[in-house]
Amino acid sequence: MVETVRGQVPVDQLGTVLMHEHVFVLNEEIRRNYPEFWDEEARVADAIRRLRELAGRGVNTIVDPTVIGLGRDVERVARINAEVDLNIIAATGLYTYDSVPFFFRMHGPGTLLGGDDLMVRMFVKDITEGIAGTGIKAAFLKCAIEEELTPGVERVLNAVAEAHNRTGAPITVHTSPGHRTGLVAQEVLRRNGVDLGRVVIGHSGDTTDTDYLRELIDNGCYIGMDRFGLDALLPTDDRVATIAKLVGEGLADRMVLAHDASCHIDWFPQGVVEEAMPNWHFTHIHDVVLPALREAGVSEQQLTTMLVDNPRRYFS
């Protein structure tokens, strides 16, 4: 069984899964203090429309790695999910490229007051009891490393690893292929006792460096080819060619697919995403990428492996 926003779902009924999508990415302090930047009714209605469109393409499940630092609000997601026939799998964890929030700075490992890391307790509670008193349980852990392993990033990785060890929940890591930080994340998790077979190294699709990608795979992880539509980082044609090459080497069973898209992300001014990145939306994979992969020689069974079988194994 896998915990979703609507309750438990048998793992073999997750169906077609996009492994890294967000409903919303928000700064909640800005949203609450400057409401002129947010229209709740309009945003919720738009999210319902976008997710219904995605479900209409045959997607059964999205894995949503929105955690602390990205504006997680599972109550809002649950209201939206009640109107859409789609499994949404929630995460716990903390998103930072640098230091931890001030809430954690004075207590915990290596701090002024020392002691156990409150993050571990929080993450474990989200997985075992539920998030924010809703009863909605997180089914996986999320952390991030961008350019380098700062003390704050390492602390979050350590806390995620400990929560994984206590609960068995799998892990997804935001990484930067250009800085090869997937390898750094693997090493930190490995020395904390994490089974790397339970880890997705996210955003691995941002590179055509197949030597780097093979090294991640050889170390035991899944790789997330999960930013389709972000053509400014790497065009779709290059992403397709990289996947086709690895599939041709027998590595379909180590890749998962997604867009890393959202119904709304407040990092950009209104209209910028649609104008500058018109392919960065939930249906790009089914409308464009899957036909291109077929044209590149990827079989239906290999597509099923990446979209159905690998997510099922990850959550098993």
TrEMBL record:
The keyword Transferase is annotated on this UniProt entry: no
The keyword Metal-binding belongs to this UniProt entry's keyword annotation: yes
Residues carrying N6-carboxylysine: K142
Cofactor: a divalent metal cation
Residues annotated for Zn(2+) 2 binding in this entry: K142, H174, H203
Textual note on the cofactor: Binds 2 divalent metal cations per subunit.
Keyword vocabulary terms for this entry: Hydrolase, Metal-binding
Gene3D superfamilies, per database record: Metal-dependent hydrolases
Pfam family, one: PTE
Domain of life assignment: Bacteria
Residues noted as binding Zn(2+) 1 in the record, renumbered to the chain: H20, H22, K142, D260
A molecular-function term among this protein's GO annotations: hydrolase activity
Family membership noted in the UniProt record: Belongs to the metallo-dependent hydrolases superfamily. Phosphotriesterase family.
Protein name (record): Phosphotriesterase-related protein
